[in-house]
Design brief:
Blueprint: H1 30-42, H2 47-62, H3 68-79, H4 83-99, E1 119-122, E2 129-131, E3 145-147, E4 150-151, E5 156-157, E6 171-174, H5 177-182, E7 192-195, H6 211-221, E8 225-231, H7 237-241, E9 249-254, H8 258-264, E10 265-266, H9 271-283, E11 288-295, H10 301-315, E12 321-328, E13 330-331, H11 333-342, E14 354-355, E15 361-362, H12 365-378, E16 387-390, H13 395-402, H14 409-423
Parallel strand pairs: 1-6, 3-7, 7-8, 8-9, 9-11, 11-12, 12-16
Antiparallel strand pairs: 2-3, 4-6, 5-10, 13-15, 14-15
The chain binds iron/sulfur cluster.
Iron/sulfur cluster binds next to loops.
Length: 426
């Protein structure tokens, strides 16, 4: 068998299945590719089985785990069974691997994959105001409104859905956000919670094209708006230099243990830098919030999250904390496809063996209950003084944690608005 030249798919296997079409196949080594062709030519299997077999090979490479041919051959030796029964053994092995708890201690991400793009002015008359892109009637949701001042991102979180929303890596910064926000009609008799961190990072780009100026005017002209700047960056410089900023806004950071940040959140600020940025904004007279989202299941997760929660409780006064949100790793299938296509090494998809009501990949319920129970327990000193909620989760996860769940998203939204209003320095 000549090295590099893939075997031609023989007709022996009637599935006419083409492994090359599987996302991520191109990133496999020639040895892995030739082995896959050999198995597909010699072991009878259905189209869907063939797909699962090749996807497993791609995922093993993604997890930086053993190679498909090494596992197959070790199972062969161990079991001494015919090839078609070996396929079942192999799939059982992969199912166990998907349940295996990942470790991040030695892992460093491959940041260069995500940040090719350049800045491009966004001058079309697009709608900048909308609803939270992952809001759902099937989960308990807060009806967050969004402002897309910037779309796409230069940071590289491996699990981020933003990467599937754009055909290229350019980052679009709105050039006439001010005019667009002036056209937004709001009901002056009700309050609104807006966030700017759903289509990109709220802080990393600074006041490019005057987007912060536009947002400040929007806050001043709409005192019934509570504007949240959600970020994984520590770029608060512009806000620290300003005088008389509107009070109806606050800042929030997504927090995770540093080993996860190192492994899966490339080009983002370190945990310490995010906490320091929040401390600076409290010093500037603002309230802040923290998002434990995604909470991730990995070896050492309990002590790792306990340390993060301890740091937050020891360095902040609950009167300055608007809320704490909790959510587990949950990704659309399009992100898994993108991750496979990119050929990056990551563990973020490995244990997502269940589906949420929206068909998104997530952890099995047992793991989710465990993650929520531990992190919320660590926040016990703040249970009576800070608003806690689950983001993008079903009511079945609220009851064991909080003893209740909002019957409607509207009731959740009202409670959220009251919590925000009570903590802003208005
Ligand atoms: S709970 Fe989370 S997903 Fe749902 S609307 Fe609010 S921010 Fe969006």
């Amino acid at each position: 068998m000549t090295q590099g030249a893939p075997l031609k798919l023989k007709e022996a296997n009637s599935t006419k299945f083409d492994p090359i079409a599987v996302s991520g196949f191109s990133h496999l080594s020639d040895t892995e590719k030739n082995f896959i062709f050999e198995i597909l030519s010699t072991v009878r299997m259905s189209f869907s089985r063939a797909r699962l077999f090749v996807e497993a090979a791609v995922d093993l490479r993604q997890w930086d785990s053993k190679k498909v041919h090494d596992i197959w051959n070790s199972l062969k030796i161990k079991n001494g069974i015919p090839p078609n029964m070996l396929l079942e053994k192999f799939m059982e092995y992969i199912a166990k691997e998907r349940e295996g708890i990942p470790s991040f201690t030695e892992r460093k991400t491959t940041p260069e994959k995500w940040v090719h793009g350049s800045f491009a002015p966004l001058s079309k008359d697009n709608q900048v105001v909308g609803d939270c892109p992952v809001m759902s009637k099937k989960t308990v949701c807060c009806n967050l409104k969004t402002i897309d001042a910037v779309t796409n991102c230069v940071m590289g979180c491996n699990y981020c859905a933003i990467q599937t929303m754009h055909s290229n890596d350019n980052v679009f910064v709105d050039v006439n956000l001010l005019e667009k926000l002036r056209k937004v009609e709001l009901d002056p008799t009700r309050q609104y919670h807006f966030g700017t961190g759903q289509s990109s990072d709220s802080l990393v780009f600074g006041n490019r094209n005057g987007v912060f100026d536009a947002l400040m005017e929007f806050c001043r002209t709409n005192p019934n708006v509570f504007l949240e700047f959600k970020s994984k960056s520590s770029n608060t410089a512009w806000f620290e230099k300003q005088k008389d900023l509107p009070a109806n806004m606050f800042f929030s950071w997504s927090l995770n243990p540093q080993e996860f940040i190192d492994a899966e959140e490339a080009h983002t600020a370190s945990l310490e830098k995010r906490i320091q940025a929040a401390e600076r904004m409290v010093k500037c007279g603002f309230s802040v919030a923290f998002h434990f989202h995604p909470i991730v299941w990995f070896s050492r997760w309990q002590e790792a999250y306990s340390a993060v929660v301890k740091a937050v409780i020891s360095r902040f006064n609950p009167k300055d904390i608007v809320y704490i949100s909790l959510g587990t790793m949950t990704i659309p299938r399009s992100v898994r496809k993108k991750i496979r296509e990119a050929g990056i090494t990551t563990q973020v998809v490995r244990n997502l063996t269940a589906e949420n009501p929206e068909g998104k990949l997530t952890y099995p319920d047992t793991i989710k209950h465990e993650l929520f129970a531990h992190v919320y327990k660590e926040f016990q000193p703040w249970h009576q003084s800070v608003f806690f909620y689950l983001c993008m989760e079903e009511a079945k996860f609220w009851h064991p944690l909080f003893g209740f769940a909002y019957e409607t998203n509207e009731k959740f939204e009202l409670a959220m608005l009251q919590a925000i209003h009570s903590k802003l320095k208005i």
